[in-house]
Amino acid sequence: MKIKAALYNADHVEFGTVAIPFPIPQDQYDSTIQMLEALDIGDPRARDCMVEELQGPVPILKRLEGYRVNVDELDYLVKRLDSFADNELAQFQGAAAAKGFVEITDLINLTFCCQQATVITDFSDLEQIGRDHYMNLHGGCASMKELELLDARKTALDLILNDTSGQITPYGVVYDNGMRLEPVYDGQHLPCYCYGRDMLAVGLLPQQESLDLTAATWIYLPSTEIQISRAVARSGAAALDELFRYETGSMFPEEVDAALNFKQEGLDALNALAKAVVKLSQEDYNKLGAVVSLVKPQNSSEICRLAENLAQFDLIPGVYTPESYGKHMIQEFRGSGLSLNLDGFCDYTGIGLQQMEQEQGAFTIRGYVTYHGALTLDELVQMDSAEQHQGEQDESIGMKGLS
Prior knowledge:
The chain has 16 helices and 13 strands. The protein has about 400 residues and is an alpha+beta fold. The strands form four sheets. The chain has a four-stranded antiparallel β-sheet with strand order 2-1-3-4, covered by helices on one side. A three-stranded antiparallel β-sheet has the order 5-7-6. The chain has a three-stranded antiparallel β-sheet with strand order 9-8-10. Helix 10 packs parallel to helix 12 (about 300-310) and helix 13 crosses helix 14.
């Protein structure tokens, strides 16, 4: 979903208008904020962006035209809607029209409950209307047996002919089914919502004994320094170290999660790790999990270095025993052009064990992983420190040569 909003400073119209795409692409977030700041708008907390025009596939959002919005609130709303199926978008737009919602807090909260409403856009399929209505009344889920026993046509006719609460809107006939708008969003603390390739959600909370996640301000790693500083400002704190951190929603390989004590990791280190992992292909993502099992790194910085040096490792998926490794090697041998039938003549286990003695490898839940780099594994994970030390030595030698 792509929404484009033309925003301006209502107090200084002479500054002009800027067109912003929503959701804001991660690699354009900083430049987007800079464009808004040039118009003296885009505050982390204030609703200071006047909407001149809004274009996109969710026409109900045009209701925001002529209203002031906060750029991060609008970005959050569009991200929520981007995950909606067509029927959910119909529910959202129909419910918003029926209830007359125009304020962005209400629209955000509506994304959490609009699925309770029934919106009929096509009266030609009574069976589908009945099934959809039944599902809406039961939290969006029902067993196959329930649906088989359901007289969907009768359910639809009973709704259409006997329920007088239906409201006609441009988006269909809306039955709210007793839907209530709960204050999931309080106007300051946007609820946790991972989007796209967010690797880790970090909640920032006031220093307190109770863990009240409704009072958290969320950062999604990888983030830019601007995103982090804006999240701190939105929380109301003066600095990051005034806040308690809570991590959730990790999309790192499970081996990474098991290796890390998140509370002992700095936010910068976790962010660097997220930046390294988010770039990986699915193949390398799986390899990183296996490599972490082999190397057993001690912190996020060491895992980050492994992620940046995956080319020095090989992963053979589906190989979990010396025997299966021996068979894999024979298959590789056959693939070289020979077509010998060696089954019954080979000690596959012995071949696998012999090869394993000659390399650094381990069996993991993802397969057999080996390391073939020039450095030792300890040197590899400490590579930054070693390079810095070598650089200092070289500089010292160079200075001595000049004296």
